[in-house]
Amino acid sequence: MNFVREETKGDFQMRSKWFFALMMAAVVIITAGLSQASLAANLLLNPGFESGNIDWATTSTLLTKSQYNWTYMGYAYNITSNFRPENKTTNANKEYHSGTNASRTNTSQLPGHTTIYQDVYVAQNSTYNASVWVRARDLSSDGTGFGSQPGDSVGIWIQELDIDGNLVVDHGKVGVTKANTAYEQINYPSFTTASNTAKVRFMLDSTLGEVYGKTQITYDDCVLDGPSPTCVITGTVTDGTTPLSNVAVTVTGGNTQSALTGSNGVYAIAGVQADASGKVTVRVAPTGYYAQTKTRSPSPAPATNTCDFTLIPVGNNLLQNAGFDDGWPAGNWNTYNARATVGHEAGTTFSPTSYISGEDAACIYSSYAGGTADGDGRLWQTVSVLPNQPYTASVQFTPVGNNWTVDPAEVAGLFVKEYDAAGNLIVDHPVVNPTMLQPGFFETLTDAFTSNSKTAVIQIGGFAHINEPTPSRAIFEDFALIGPAGPAIPMLSGVVTGGGAALSGAAVTTSGAAANSTYTTSNGHYSFNVATSTSSYTIRASQAGYYAQQKSRVLNGTDIVPFDLVPIGQNLLVNPGFDDGFVSDWTRTAINSGVVGGETSLKGDYLPVCQTGEQAAVIYVRPGNGGGDMYQVVPVQPGQAYTATVWCKASWRTVKGTSWGTDPNQKATLYATEYDALGNVVANHTLDAVVDPNAPQVYQKLSIPFTTAVGTIAVKVGATAYLVDAYDTRGLARVEFDSFEFNGPAFPASPTVSSIKSKDGSLVSLTGKIVTGRFGTSPNQFFYIEDPDRSAGIRVTVPPGMGAPNAGEIVNVYGLVQTVGGEKQITAASMVHVTTGGTVPGALGMSNRTTSTTLPVGLRVSVWGTVGDIVDGYFYLDDGSGTNLKVYTPSSYTPVTGDYVTVVGILGSELAGTDTIPVIRATAATKQN
Question: CA 697, 703, 708: angle at the middle one, nearest 5?
Fold first, then answer.
């Protein structure tokens, strides 16, 4: 006897609440050990929950939630159903059939019932198979967990639905009713879809007679195997008045199909397969017209799906993808946001969406927890032009929301900037703001001008500051820059200066798909070609004696990216302005619910957040009363003069109210803490920012001059902030820090590893050493470094709060030389990543007997021999030289007595009783016989 389920267009409900009494009749019992069904194509999205998994408990007002391609559902008579990612559970029963995640469900109220499902488009009159791996746990100690109640069952339930979501066929449930001791596969019997079936609902259905603590159900590796449905796409392509013939139309989904339009502009493409989400993209891109891309969720054949195009001639418009109708963010647009989102109408859930041509437009909106909003966004393109020529820039703009005419801080507009060939801004046009501000009415914003005599490129775009939460937004459509095109210029160019002076020979690199490198000329100029991309590239400039800088851009073919590097001088900090990557070289800690993060700013933004460069550090807190800390530890000389400095900005919106200046607990502080050789605090120097709550948001300079004490060997330089205001409130309280300095005489660095090995109890500083291996787990991680000439190596502990560097990186370390557990090491007080992604030096081959000398300890070596005694975590290696060598087993190898293996790793040492013995901390072991 099967349950009858009632379809209500996308949802279903159990008619019977006494399902436990009937469940045994509805379930086909499956036993363990069934073979895996052969796979043709898994039609399910996120079938193993590796792409994400919901962490949610149902409530009386919310019983259904869709996320990560699955819909999770509880029932009205059981309002405390729970769904959790397996890898986020807090108990020790985490198990996966494969990968690193699965979906767990349980209940805190009886009777228990949960369902997880996907609706999948399928072909009519076609055969399908379904399966899942399930782990049904009885957690009780007395057999009263899963399987002890007559209604217990977990498994697959299959239903066929028509195109409107109405039930066509209910195939019932197949599952298990007893607990298992390992993952068990449920293979659903093959079924053939009906002639009017459009979708299959694949359900993981759990009925539970025991509460959480006695029963846990986990699903993994779901499969719906069978043919994808085919569709027919047809339509007409015109320019608004005239049909366009011989236009190529391409449909991409589960397959790719193309056709040409006829003389009447009509095309028809059969045999189209939708992708796994049931969608296809249709694109046309004839010469002389702006390309358009549209997304459809087609109905399977014999239904016909229509997709028409009305194309816009390019004419003299110098912009690409000017109406955002060829995908997002394709077409050479750069975007920037600060507490806002720069998106597109078709990519949101707003209803209705607004656009003029095609089916999309750009939009800027802002929304935070609690319904607050206070953010800035912009988008732009950079185009090569001619000097002294007439141009007209324009865009269609409409606002959405009620705040535009009442809040003077809510603004938007068209901006135009002119740059010379070196990337210098020479003309910054006044922003053209809308005047009508009528939601639903597109207003044309226009800026007509003659380019400057030095202009080489023009940047055109739109910006908005949003104070009202979604769906309030600013919509931009059909940008245009009309005028003569300029000459082709290198895809990426600019000038690198240092303190305003041109730098010759500075290295400029790009990462990612655009990976390339070059050096500046004598006038500081650089240029090279890189591929355009819809994603951001990282561009980095560096020169000896200056702090490196990184900038992110979407390269659009005419990009000018200048750099002005900051001289290092006597500044002892690394990456002091966070412009070479925020995370690099700084230790961060949170206070309560505080967050220490990074912010980016581009010159000319509505609210710049950086004092120099394009990156800064920010501390904020949710929900309030918390903060954070960031610092570097620097070796110093005793009895010397030093100065610690930072630029600090307390941020808020004055019209929203703030605790700055009114609550003494809300403050931002620069500090410099002195330490002796034993790690004791010698002196602590602090300076709080003075914030006027009525003053505009501006950076202020905090500076602490001091002389180190006689016993001082290191100074921790950093900044901390404690916030009473929550970041989510209308105050949007936060603190930005930028451009740290710590000036004074540097601690002298030792030239080599070998020169410091005899200095037990001494503080040492080593620079430019290569990492050869990393071991252990936090907080007990350590790594090894070597001299470039391979003369010596040494073990280094990871400083508190930092992660271990990867093999191949170049690092600077500072700390105390000690002998710990029979091995010389540097107990690091600080570490700086100099470069990443380097090459690990080759392993030095040596016999077991050679490893017994003290000379090679700390070097990367290779040994070989026969596996002897095996102990948990290590084994002994015999190479016939008369010395058995202890080898810590690498994770990639399972030792077997008698194996002849080659082992690569770092040679260390340890105490065995009172004796010091060599050990290999292996990174790899390869069986040779």
Answer: 155
List, for residues 29-52, the tens digit of each pLDDT value. 333 333 333 344 788 989 999 988
**Residues β-bridged to residue 188:** 130
Average pLDDT over every residue of 823-833: 79
Say how many C-beta atoms besides its own lie within 10 A of residue 475's C-beta: 27
Give residue limits of the domains in the chain.
5-225, 230-310, 334-482, 492-567, 587-743, 763-835, 844-927
Residue range 334-482 in CATH 2.60.120.200: yes
Contacts of 430 (CB under 8 A, 6+ apart): none
Phi, psi of 88 (to 5 degrees): -110, 5
Phi/psi of residue 851, nearest 5 degrees: -65, -15
Place of tokens 């393109």: 381
CATH architecture of 587-743: Sandwich (2.60)
3-state secondary structure of 273: strand
Backbone torsions φ then ψ of 86, nearest 5 degrees: -60, -35
Tell me the mean pLDDT in the region 15-31.
Answer: 35
pLDDT tens digits, 260-288: 999 999 999 988 988 877 889 999 999 99
Distance CA(504)–CA(497), nearest Å, equals 9
CATH code for the part of the protein at 230-310: 2.60.40.10
Question: What whole-number distance in Å separates Cα of residue 868 and Cα of residue 878?
Answer: 7
- What's the DSSP call for residue 560? E
User: Do 552 and 525 form a contact (C-beta atoms < 8 A)?
Assistant: no
> Do 538 and 510 form a contact (C-beta atoms < 8 A)?
yes
* Cα-Cα end-to-end distance for the chain: 60
Please give the C-alpha separations between residue 920 and each of 351, 856, 898, in angstroms, as whole numbers.
64, 11, 19
Cβ count within 10 A of residue 213: 12
What pTM value is reported for the model?
A: 0.55
* Cα–Cα dist 160/169, whole Å: 5
CATH number 2.40.50.140 is the correct assignment for the domain at 844-927 = yes
Q: Cβ distance 234 to 249 under 8 Å? A: no
DSSP strand E in 652-759: where?
667-675, 681-688, 700-707, 714-723, 734-743
In angstroms, the CA 208 to CA 151 distance is: 7
Residue type present at position 323: G
Euclidean distance between CA atoms 38 and 606, whole angstroms: 58
Q: Strands of 292-296's sheet, edge to edge?
A: 256-260, 248-252, 280-284, 292-296
CATH class of the region 5-225: mainly beta
Q: Which residue, among 279, 57, 34, 9, has the nearest Cα to 156 in the 3D structure?
A: 34
CB 26 within 8 A of CB 172: yes
Are the beta carbons of 672 and 704 closer than 8 angstroms?
Answer: yes
Interacting residues of 167 by C-beta distance below 8 A, sequence separation 6+ = 5, 6, 7, 12, 159, 160, 161
For 763-835, the fitting CATH number among 2.40.50.140, 3.30.70.20, 2.60.40.10, 1.10.510.10 is: 2.40.50.140
Same fold, 587-743 and 844-927: no
250 neighbors 258 (Cβ within 8 angstroms): yes
The fold of the 492-567 domain, in CATH, is Immunoglobulin-like (2.60.40)
The alpha helices in 760-913, defined as continuous H runs, are 848-851
pLDDT beyond 70 at 60: no
SS3 string of 189-203?
A: EEEECCCCCCEEEEE
Mean pLDDT (the chain) is 83
The encoded tokens of residue 673 equal 């803490």
The 3 state secondary structure assigned to 504-553 is CCCEEEECHHHCEEEECCCCCEEEECCCCCCCCEEEEEECCCEECEEEEE
Name the residue among 82, 57, 50 with its Cα closest to residue 206: 82
Query: Residue 485 gets which letter from DSSP?
Result: B
Q: Are 366 and 436 in contact (CB under 8 A)?
A: no
Looking at residue 910, its pLDDT comes to: 93
